[in-house]
Amino acid sequence: MPWLPERHLIPRLVGLSTTLWLCCKVGSWVRGLGRLGSLLLRLLRPGRLWRCPDYGHLLMVPLYPGNPPSTEAAQGAQRLAEEALQLGGPEALQRLGEAVLLNPTDAQLYLARAKLSSKVQALDDAEMCVSIDAKSAEGWLEKGKAELALSRSIDAAQSFTAGLQLAPEDPQLQRYAALRAEPTPNILQQFKDLFFTARLGLENLFRTLEDPTKTNDAFVESNAAVLDTQLGLLAQTLHVNTCVLFDSSRLCDAYEQIVRACAQLVSNAPASFSRRLQHAENIVEGLSLALRIGWHIHHGIAKHAATALIVLATSPGAAEPLRRLAVRQLLGGLLRWLLDARPEPDREEGEEICGCNCPVPWKAAACFLERLFEPGRPQALVQQECENWPDTVQLCQWLTLSVRDYHATPLGLVALLQFPKVAQQAMRSLAKVDFFIAPHIFGEDFGEDDLEDESEGPEDLDPDLPWWRAAQMSRQPRAWRHVRFLEAAAQANDATGGSASSAGPVPVPAAPFGAQVPGLDVEGRDASMLRWIPDPPPPPPQRLGEWLMNSLGYLFLFIEGDALFTVYACRALQALAKADPEGDGESRLLRGLWLGVPLLSKLSLAACTNTAALDLLHCLLGAKCPSARAGLRSAVRSLAMALATEDGAREDAAGTADMAAANFSPGAPEALLPPDAPMREDLGDMPNNLLLTHDDDLVPSWAEFHHELFQELACPNSRDGSSTPDLVTLANFETKASLLAEHATVHAVASDSERTVRYTCSAVPAAWNRSMLSIDVDTGEASTPEPWQTASAQRLKVFHDDGCAVGSDEYVQDTRKQNKAVLMSRRSIRSSHKVHNWAQAVASAEEAGAGVVVVFNDLDALEPFRMGLFGEKLPNIPAFMVSGKDGQALCAARDCDILIVRSVLTSSSTTPPWPLAGGRLADIAQAWSLLEAISDHDGELEELLQRMSVPEKRVWMTRRLVRHHRHQAEGEELEPALAFVEADRWLAPEKQLEALRQQFREQTGLGAPDVCGEFEVRFRGEQGVGSAVAREWMDLIAREAFLQPKLRLLRSFDQRQTFWPDAAAPFCNSCWKMDYEILGCLVGLALWQNCTLDLPLHPHVCALLFGFPEGKISTSLADMDPDLQKNKVDWLLANSLEQLGIDLSFSDPLGVEEESEGGEPLPALVRADDRLAGAETESCVLRRVGAAEVALADEDTVTDQNKELFVSRLVEWRLQQSVSLQVEAMAKGLSKVLPASLRQEMHSLLTPLEIAQLLSGLGSLSVDDWESHSVCTHGLSKESPVVQWFWQVVRGWAKEEEAMLPQLLQFVTGSARVPVGGFSELVGFNGAKHAFTLAGASHLSPQALPVAHTCICTLDMPPYTDFETMRHKMTQMLRLGRAHFDEGAGQAGQE
């Protein structure tokens, strides 16, 4: 080598080797520094602890969330344990699982299971045994044996040592301890060396596994031998001794990396991993151990392990034995998560790992169970393992607690309870359950230093309760706790005389358990809201099946907006009802559901649009117990009657109320505030949205809801004569609900007269008014009812003054309230910082000496509802709620007395009134659906049908369509189909029709298989998108493609007021079948989208299209074509044909309409058999009709002898034969939205005329109706000059340019026709009702054009300065063209 002289060879080699050695050392140091930095970062990361404290679990005696099991339950568990010892095998484990449900805190049951199980399952049971009873030597023995089987020898040695300390003479413990007495010297150091050697040798593998694109089945197949060797080493490290692992943070770091690497391998290539690698089972077992101990190091370890097991369990290509093992290990680990007692940290959300940011295991368990049962995953094998696993029902029990009281994600629970065998085990269990985590109110932060002082806790709690358990019990919604914090801050600020507006809220220190904010009196009215408030007692213990039913019902009531949960919850309740071992679970459900009455109200609404809810309702109506079934049917009728109540009934009884309601404006609730009312701005930096939160806007806890419902639905106990009241349920509704019927009427009577009534209105009594609820809450004994609870009427003076905050010292010390009826607005209660619910507000008025309180609802829907207690003490004065309108009238009657007349219904032979009055609005469509469900009340249905308006029938039809198209097949949540249309609004009519044909050929747009999903329309060159654009497009193609006479598709006989299918179409249009199918699909889409089409079909066509029987079709020829009936038919029948002077052919003209250019003409006479096939072809030919006529019979001419035959054939042709084939093609397209079964169902509710009205709306515009149902926002009011000028322009157009009105309506709403019912039924975003709105647009210049927001029926009005400018701009706006959906178009039109 000439470039390397020999004399320099040795020095160069030495230098090179030195350099290589130095590089290796530097690389090693760098890697070490990198790991150290990574370790430090992990240690400094929030919430990262290498060894979390052991918080224990919920089965420990001080942490058990319910009452201790009864003696009978313990004896039953013992019997099952004895039976299990005789059976052995899987049956024994099942019996022991049932025993654990009866007595969850019995350590001996877990010991017995540990002896029958192996490895991980045995370790779970043994650890549970020694955690409950640390003095169980046998438990320590089984724990050590299980650890030894898992190769955790050091852990096993410690367990055997602990057992020997308790039982030194036990021979098994001595034998096992002797085996482990002489461990290998320096075993800990050897383990560490092996661990890090393995880690350093597997760096390349870890880097590969971190890339999902590289880790796949092909990678595993090609590297199976090497991977198997490496995984054998990793499997050993996954079975690490916990005492060694927790001893070193570096070991924990390495353990986390190995768990993550193994989890990624399993997740990315489950099939090849389970089939090609020999150590796959050891890896799965190691991941299951990581699942259990991961939370003690970092939640990411446990979450990665859980994710891998879920992927493996639900992978169809993976080996079945490993899939089943993964399901069992996952369920066991998640049960341990649910029993973990660690508190939730103060931060709202944790670090997101594997798509889960839950910082505590008892919430994360619900997330991962939901993934296991995720729709679309294979369920058969998972279902089998869940049903055969002995602790599935126990898992459901603790999962219910996490979901219900901890607000964890609920889908996993309801999915699990749908499995038949799981439901059977739950319903068969005799265990009685009352588990509940109380939502105490604490400070925002919890810390060991703050709460370790036991003397600071409330007296009612166990003084040995650790601080972290108190924190865990503080599962109050964070918004609620934040509001309490702000309220306490405001009170502290008031007490110190500070100004919240200038300095912001006064900081309040974190209040420890039971502590008070300094400077505030706990017993006084200014006490801190952060103080401990005792919870109402939870519901009484129930059998496990009933407890699960009620818990599901509670979740169903308060979880809104989750369609899949609604489906799953209804199916789970139905599965529980059908799984009763006695065969009458429906009756058992009706009797056991203490929340059945409010549940029926929610269920009935869900049943309108949800098949699963309707199935559950039908299931309950099939109860075998006659009394329970009769109670439910009575409740259904009662609810239907309440829903069908007219809203205007109260107004009819009001009498002369004009003097009080003159200045009342429902659209402007701000006007109801007095001028000196405190505004939210006075609160400085406090968030306004939280201050608007009120107790009735939050979800009550399990116990709070039972307490409130008991106050609402308690009635006298007539069975045993005891003073303890009963609760009205669905099972006893028929006999008990009538005892709750209480009605109140408020009369404003002139002070100087005994009989002159100035105003009358209905009032809803508060929940505490009833005499049967007169119970002393302190002693629990019946007390003497107050006079108001027994008197039928009392007359008092009126007092109303919202000038000071309700509950304040000034309010309480105001002597003007003495023995008066105090009027109080709901807004004043909500804006006050001194009271937080109805009962506190009424109590403050009582303290001021008031005799009665009348609250008027000046918020939300302005309707009255029943006021609850929210856990407060019963006020000693009654309270009532009236509507906002009635409240304004009573406030105006200051010179009057108030006379409140109350009546209580003690018995009734008819349907009792619905007892819940919580702000429910009339819904006749829902009432109809309820009465349909009980199906044998035709008289009531007919009576209800007579009262239903067409808009209400539209509501019924829309809900029925939603129920049909949103039906979840096999529990799978299907993604809504997407149909997309790119349209061109400037195409000629022929091109528009051809574009629709092309959509059908390509199965896009209207031709898509499913048009009931997401239907999106975009106009070429425009930016607008949304439901209003779709409405505009449907209106456009209806006019341009179907109403054009030259296209020979629709024809009118009444000057284009209504349309019929053109009889000539099958003779002249080679694509007539496709065209009419498109038309039918358009009609269905319009009904689905609640769109009013400019396509008024004749009612007779609607009757044929919807398949009405002939008996319900009464259309005559005169209804179709009055001129033909009068000038031809009537004349022929009354006169001789000789007077005609010419021969009349026995045929009917196909019509002389506007002809298209070109095309071959039809023959002069055609027959019905000459109609074209209408096959779909690439090119459509349209022939000219001209003077062609269709032969009605074989006769050539009409004579006096056959003219009656001619008339009958003519009528039959015009009304049936000429349109039957076209209607049949339309029905095929309509079936995409409305199948024949639904069209048949509509016959009992809708007439053909009403269907035509639903489709095309009203033919004329009423400006008065338009103006009366419009609203003004963003600084505009009815009196604003811009608004008055707007209606002046509209009324001018109505007189001079009427064609401008439909253009304006379409510009703002997307539709040129008014829906049936008038402007009150105007449709906006996604088919929902939206009032026509004029909004102030101060951001626009006075010379700008108005801008429309069609999805919300809103027109932004610039600040015009005079009428002429506005009229010019509005005219210019409409005449610029139709590009008004482009948001930029309005801006471009500015001058």
From TrEMBL:
List of catalytic residues: 1351 (glycyl thioester intermediate)
Signal peptide (UniProt feature, chain positions): none
Residues spanning the membrane: none
InterPro entries: E3_ubiq-protein_ligase (IPR050409), HECT_dom (IPR000569), Hect_E3_ubiquitin_ligase (IPR035983), PA_domain (IPR003137), TPR-like_helical_dom_sf (IPR011990)
HECT domain ranges (all copies): 1007-1388
Pathway membership: Protein modification; protein ubiquitination
UniProt keyword terms in alphabetical order: Transferase, Ubl conjugation pathway
Pfam family, one: PA
UniProt EC number: 2.3.2.26
GO molecular function, one term: ubiquitin protein ligase activity
UniProt keyword Membrane, yes or no: no
Coiled coil: none
Substrates-to-products reaction catalysed: S-ubiquitinyl-[E2 ubiquitin-conjugating enzyme]-L-cysteine + [acceptor protein]-L-lysine = [E2 ubiquitin-conjugating enzyme]-L-cysteine + N(6)-ubiquitinyl-[acceptor protein]-L-lysine
Keyword check for Translocase: no
Name used for this protein in its record: HECT-type E3 ubiquitin transferase
Source species of the chain: Effrenium voratum
Lineage of the organism: Eukaryota, Sar, Alveolata, Dinophyceae, Suessiales
